[in-house]
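Lecture notes, structural biology module. Today: joint structure prediction for complexes of two components.
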Amino acid sequence: MPPRPPSASPSTPFLTDVSRFLGAFRWAFMPLGLVALVAVGVHSAADTLDERLLSVVDRVDAAFDAFVGRFELTAPLVEWVSLEQRTRIARFLALAWELCADLVLALPALGYREASAPAPVEAWRAMMEPQPVQPTWRALWTRCWRKPTPMRWLRPLATAAVVLAGACAVAKLIQGSVYLSWRELFGDAAADVAARVLALAGLVGVLASLGWRAVLRNLQHADAVCEEAGGRRAWRQGLLGCGVVVPLAVAAAVDATPLWSFFR
Amino acid sequence: MFPRRAKGLLDFCMAALCVWAAYHHTPAGALLRKATAWATGTRSTARPLLAYYDGVSGTAVSAPLVAPDVPLMRPLTDAEALAWGTHLALKSMDARARAPVVALASELGVSTASLLDPQDGPVVARRLHAALAEDFPGEEARLTALFAGRVPARYALERMQAEGGTPTLERLASQLPPGFEGASVGAAQALALATAFGLAWPVHERARVTSPFGERFHPVLGRRKLHTGVDLGVPVGTSVVAVADGVVRRASEDAVNGRVLVVDHGRGVTTAYCHNSELLVKVGEGVARGQRVALSGNTGRSTGPHLHYQLELAARPMDPLKFRTALRSVVKDAAP
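The predicted structure, tokenised, for the full assembly:
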């Protein structure tokens, strides 16, 4: 028989009890938290891309107008898309892009399952009922090097960039909310210090609690998909998804990650 | 990572923070809020989905809003334009969103009613701006201070300076926590309107308006259609100048607009110049106010030499004459 986990002693502090109670619901709130973190990061990135999308839509529309304007029959199509509609189209594209990226990066997070250290089992049980083993960081890393594919590399890296942007957005929210609501209670200087400390704590906490798990979960998902496809087919797996998330990841890393601002 | 005993609590807190941020600040969260409101039969507080990408949320400026009740008797200075923009934006806001402005007005001994008065409103708005000018010399920061309050504006400004880069209204608004959306929209509307009041005219002031903005019987198509700009009767080859500093967003040619130029002036203001004979600037090029950008012509779907000048606020066509003082004479039913 495996050893029983130690039961809480009557003198266990209240917070420990609360923590243990909440810990029992990790299966529910951890996947939700991961999805939310990815969604916040993806939006931070998409928000910086809308102007560039508008410029792309403008160029495409200009080329379209020039083409259809050559022929009498198609000339009325020039007015098909007005200046106002172009802006709406660009915003709609940004929204569609963001929701697609959410699907690609956040959906694997919903499959997150908490894995505790394997409990010791009797030798005969281990032989008869082999337990499914989640690949470790080391195993995943090794496969990334030995069998590199776009999905294995790009999805976790994109997740890392997006998660960093998401953590910064959450920290900014904490800082603003704390400073503006605590200022009248504790004074300007105290509220400022508290806001900065809590924002940094939030940034570190989100990354330490959820950030690495989001990256790991995407790496596990990419690894499983590539392993299942095998060989050359693994190279083609998830290319479309990578195409969707990589520009957002670059935007997230370049424009939406004001890490140093929390120290200034 | 965390002490083992507190791990459950800390993980829960971090997950809750992320869900809170996503719920309030992402379109996915807005979808969820709308779905919840629909399921419970309540009113959703989420913004329209596309408003998450328009710089500052919901900057759309409605047409009736831009019409000053009192005709402008003379060209406005920059300060006056900002005051007019502020006054008109305030008129469109609800009482709760106007609270910081009302607080500042009370501080200065100004009655709330005069803020919305068509005669006194712009004058009072100018006083409010003057009171904030020392602490907030930049227009964007000052408008944030006016609509959100001094403390939030100072905080947003400091955070934005910590991040580096240019101080735009969008970036200032992004520093503020939930609850300031209405203030950000008001500030954005005021800035767009003020910028529109400060625009120059694309051709010489004597040019006749041969077709005004609005519904009209189209002379070529033979049906009623919204005329999204004003037609200015000028000979081919007349210099067309940029009405404000900006960046060329489009320089192209097609069968309807002819040689067309679209200039983005920022702050939600865009202008377009159609039917030109020659374009003198390229896409992506920066232009200065008064710089020659095109020569007018008769290209595209046009029945005579003219310049079609179009003004858009928050991507919505507006009547440019509403923002002018000198050009009030309109020759109706003339050729486009």
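Point to remember: Residues 124 and 130 of chain A are 10 Å apart (CA to CA).
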